[in-house]
Specification:
By secondary structure, this protein is an alpha/beta fold. It is built from 14 helices and 13 strands. The strands form two sheets. The chain has a seven-stranded parallel sheet with strand order 3-2-1-4-5-6-7, sandwiched between helices.
Length: 368
């Protein structure tokens, strides 16, 4: 089949979950003999002309604005795709529902992965939240298939719109990277730091993690991995907050690839503090690396982690501090959770299985 992925910043992944998803899925589908194209935004892919691991890349511009970056690039990409003869197009992000009719003009099948309930994110103003509300409704009408990444999100669309969806989660690899140059860059020791990885936006609660950490007596540092292009004031506030911890909060900025995998593989424990979204790729990566996970108590996290980790009361820094303290003081008692987390990923969130399900969906859509 000739397939395209629209709506991400492009590959290789240098930003977030959708980009990792686009890379992992497209490379695997290409290896199975399908012709894959991933649309990339020019300011994230300035040096990425040509194929990547068997996947064609089309680099197109976008309006670099918080509210217009995604939609302008997706609109241009969908129009470009009209003339490319794709059998099916996978669009990512619910906001792109408004463009999911465009490939249908050329008789191309369309699947839309809506991710979580994006309008619940604090970064959006009233107009942004309204746009996502409208997009949710359009997502149930324009594409041939609606894809959700968690049973919780499937239930949301069913309850609110009476719309069924295909549930296909994200995936993650099983990784185990020995300590090396990645750790030495920040003077870290294996099993000698607490790790948090996320885009640094308010609803991902880095501030809660730092506040909880500051309430502990932990001698190990907290390593905060992440960035966000439109959250400079919030990030500056995090740095001010972390500065009161006597150098025990380390901000690495955005980290990807081997260095991120090394950090994940050697953490004493990992904190998943997000409260909005479906299946979080960072959580799956942490599990695949065999972490002791302490997660914000949400339905989405319980669906993924089940009994392979610990939970703290939703957005409660005091309870998070208690859970951190428990693990730091007696890590051996929680060691079985490392293997349990890896087994969850291996059995339920393997990228090859995720690819199987998308391949099956595309075959059903194009009638093969």
């Amino acid at each position: 089949m000739k397939l395209a992925i629209v709506g991400t910043r492009g590959i290789p992944a240098r930003y977030g979950g959708f980009e990792t998803f686009a890379e992992e899925l497209s490379v695997r589908l290409a290896a199975r003999g399908h012709k894959l194209t991933v649309y990339c935004r020019s300011r994230y892919a300035q040096n990425d002309r040509g194929d990547y691991r068997g996947v064609a890349r089309v680099v197109l511009p976008a309006w670099p604005h918080k509210y217009l970056d995604t939609v302008t690039h997706s609109c241009i990409s969908a129009l470009h795709g009209l003339f490319c003869g794709y059998d099916a197009v996978l669009m990512c992000n619910a906001i792109n529902a408004i463009f999911s009719w465009i490939p249908r003009v050329a008789s191309q099948k369309v699947a839309l992965n809506v991710d979580g309930v994006e309008r619940q994110r604090g970064k959006w103003n009233r107009l942004g939240k309204f746009a996502y509300l409208v997009s949710e409704k359009l997502a149930t009408r324009f594409p041939h298939a609606l894809v959700t990444d968690a049973q919780v999100i499937h239930g949301y669309y069913l309850e609110c719109y009476g719309a069924d969806s295909v549930v296909i989660p994200y995936g993650a690899p099983l990784i185990s990277i020995p300590p090396g140059q990645g750790l030495s860059r920040w003077d870290l020791k294996s099993r000698g730091y607490i790790l948090y990885v996320s885009r640094l936006e308010p609803e991902n609660h880095a501030h809660t993690v730092i506040a909880g950490f500051q309430k502990t007596s932990a001698s190990v540092p907290l390593v905060v991995v992440g960035d966000a292009p439109y959250s400079r004031d919030y990030i500056a506030g995090l740095h001010r907050q972390g500065a009161t911890a006597d150098g025990k909060v380390i901000f690495t900025g955005a980290v990807y690839g081997d260095v991120l995998e090394e950090l994940l593989s050697n953490a004493l424990l990992y904190v998943q503090a997000t409260e909005v979204g479906g299946t979080h790729p960072a959580l799956l990566q942490a599990m695949g690396a065999g972490n002791i996970v302490i997660a914000n108590d949400t339905l989405e996290h319980r669906e993924v982690l089940q009994d392979a980790g610990l939970y703290y009361r939703r957005n409660d820094a005091e309870d998070l501090a208690r859970k951190m303290e428990e693990v730091v003081m007696a890590p051996a008692a929680f060691e079985p959770m490392r293997n349990a987390a890896r087994q969850r990923v291996g059995s339920e969130y393997c990228w090859d299985k995720v690819t199987d399900r998308y391949e099956e969906l595309f075959r059903e859509l194009v009638g093969e």
